[in-house]
Amino acid sequence: MNIFFRELKANRKALIIWSVCMFLLILSGMGKYTAYSSGGGGSDVFEKMPYSLKALLGMGSFDVTTISGFFGMMFVYIELAVAIHAVLLGSGIIAKEERDKTTEFLMVKPVSRTKVITSKFFAAFVNVVIVNLISFISSLMMVNVYNKGEDITKNIAVFFVSMLIVQLVFLSLGAALASVMKKPKASGSAAAGILMGSFIVAKITDLTDKVNVINVFSPFKYFSYKDIVDGKGIDVTIVVLCIVLVAVFVSSTYLFYKNRDLKV
Amino acid sequence: MSVIEIKNLTKSYGKARGIKNINLSVEQGEIFGFIGPNGAGKSTTIRTLLGLIYPSEGNATIFGKSCIEHPEVRKELGYLPSEVFYYDNMRVIDLLKYSASFYKKDCTRRIKELAEVMDLDLKRKIEDLSFGNKKKVGIVQGLLHEPKLIILDEPTSGLDPLMQQKFFELIAEENRKGATVFFSSHILSEVQKMCSRVAFIKDGKIIKLEKMSTLQENSYKKISIETKGIIPKDVFDIKGVSKLESKGKSINFIFKGNINLIMAKMADIDLRNISIEEPDLEEIFMHYYVKEE
């Protein structure tokens, strides 16, 4: 438990900053909704836009003049932000001790490497959940300020359930990377690089349907947000596949970290 | 049972670094010196012993168990790394409490005692500490749970002479209470003071393992003299003199053996100047190499 609490404390400052930023992101994002929805004629403008432009702007096939369509567009950016948080956190929990050279302190204590990783994973999980909840609550609050139509609380809840799963994918990916890579300083950049890569993949498949198969590399596209906006919920098969993916990343984190030389 | 048992331990990283076929055993209650120049493999040996890195061949155990398979044996271990790094944003006392939380005993009193002896301010932030003060944190951190095995890797670097003295007293006290000490250093004289046995390591290999009493009988001195007149070279052609170099009126050599013998010799010479120093390790190593070949 001591490592768990130590880890929570170490991440506290970053967590507060991330939470405030998520709140501000959602606040400013939803603030623009009036511009999209006002005047009624806005819808025409969006309809006349070529699809590729809409895809690039992140609207895709959402009807951004409705609150749930607008939220669907904005959600991509919320998710990108929390994914960055998760992947850096994941790589950080493994790489941090080696980067700050505290390995020789921690790893000569009477604890196994497995126990250290487990404690750190739990602490990171708590962080990820908090960021998720803060974003969820901020979104609910802001949507309620602007929403004049039907209540979309349930849709938003589904969005954030899917986001938690994507967060866990990135968290475990970051940890696995840091564990496989021997250079602790490089693992954070590698993790961020992979994340940006997967975001670009998501953008490419937004633009064209022909290469949908590469979506497998982009957790941003694992869930169909169009379906969530339309109130169809999330696909349970995808949830299961994501959990399998997380399990693979988590177990490779343990496996590689246990069997490699620590950088001291 | 030996407290530390190292058998055929080999760790290779590429070609240059690493250790080769290290064999050592440290008995309960002894202070064991581990001497070698920088980069000889001292830290690598210790880190392999503690399970931070994996051996390429052979094995190393403390209290009869490998640290990799049985991490819990480290509860009786106190370790002071050669370079101390801690979580910067913590206060000293928080770090020490965190460290203590890994051992299932109350260490509060011991922390206070040690901090007092080492003159360490517990309220300060770690990032504000000087190198020497960080080292003190390391010492307190390594000893606060009263371990039965203390492993010290270059413990005195960064400490001023007064603190070094206090530190040696502390270690001697722990040893009296029954702790086994494994002391790695590149300074022979500091090891000489307290160790019962000493192993010399160079280029990843143990080149000599000797009882301190033997070493002390054969204390090495590096002697340089300047004479008033030219003296015949064969004056110093006696047992125990090695690496003799003479340039006109100045003569340098290393002497090993009864110091009275050489002093008697000196008394017969008309000297302008004399210096007697501890030879540095490199010179002693060279001496061993010559002897072994």
Automatic annotation (TrEMBL), chain A:
What's one Pfam family here?
ABC2_membrane_2
Superkingdom per UniProt: Bacteria
Q: Which residues cross the membrane?
A: 67-95, 116-137, 157-180, 187-205, 236-257
Keyword Transmembrane in record: yes
Q: Supply one GO CC term from the record.
A: plasma membrane
Entry keywords, A to Z? Membrane, Transmembrane, Transmembrane helix
The question of whether Transmembrane is a record keyword is answered with yes
Which molecular-function annotations from GO does this UniProt entry contain?
A: ABC-type transporter activity
**What protein name applies here?**
ABC transporter
| Annotated source species | Ruminiclostridium papyrosolvens C7
From TrEMBL, chain B:
Q: Which SUPFAM superfamilies match?
A: P-loop containing nucleoside triphosphate hydrolases
Which part of the chain is the ABC transporter domain?
4-228
Q: What GO molecular function annotation could you give as one example from this UniProt entry?
A: ATP binding
A Pfam family that this protein carries is ABC_tran
| Entry annotated with the keyword ATP-binding | yes
Q: Which PROSITE patterns match?
A: ABC_TRANSPORTER_1, ABC_TRANSPORTER_2
What keywords tag this UniProt record? Answer: ATP-binding, Nucleotide-binding, Transport
Sorted alphabetically, which CDD domains does this protein's record hold? Answer: ABC_DR_subfamily_A
Q: Does the keyword Ion transport apply?
A: no
* Cited InterPro entries: AAA+_ATPase, ABC_transporter-like_ATP-bd, ABC_transporter-like_CS, ABC_Transporter_VariousFunc, P-loop_NTPase
Record PANTHER family = ABC TRANSPORTER ATP-BINDING PROTEIN ALBC-RELATED
Protein name per its UniProtKB record: ABC transporter
What species was this sequence derived from? Ruminiclostridium papyrosolvens C7
- Give the taxonomic lineage as stored in the record: Bacteria, Bacillati, Bacillota, Clostridia, Eubacteriales
